[in-house]
Amino acid sequence: MNKLDELKSRFFSKALDGERLFLLSVEDAVQYILSGKELGLDLLGVEGFRVTEAGAFQPRQEASNDIAYYTGDDFVTETIRFIQNQSSTYWYQVGFSDSKP
After folding, report:
1. Looking at the domain assignment, is residue 33 inside a domain?
2. Can you give the CATH number for the domain in which 51 is found?
């Protein structure tokens, strides 16, 4: 099992739509990011989603953060701060590079 699969298995029970989108609450997304960092995975970004009353998932650009547009010094810390400052009703899809064994 690679490191990303190991991380996902540890958080699977907390994920909303774990088989497809793997969405995490703000608190769980923060822990997921920190755990991924401990495993040596590279954070690529987060995408925020709103879940409607009907159960549909709506991506929210204003609640998303991507390393491709980042120019600062500590993407992990700033991403955690970013999602903590968003609405607690958002759910997050966290992207890591899984190229490392």
Report:
1. yes
2. 3.30.190.30
Burial 66-99 (b: 16+ CB within 10 A, else e): eeeeeeeeebeeebbeebeebeeebbbbbbbebe
Q: Find all residues with CB under 8 Å of 87, minimum gap 6, and list them.
A: 63
- pTM of structure: 0.90
Residue 99 has pLDDT above 80, yes or no: no
In a domain, residue 101? The reply is no
What is the CB neighbour count within 10 angstroms for residue 28? 17
**pLDDT one-digit tens code per residue, 28-63:** 999 999 999 999 999 999 999 999 999 899 999 999
Three-state SS string over 48-93 comes to EEEECCCCCEEEEEEEEEEHHHCCCCCHHHHHHHHHHCCCCCCEEE
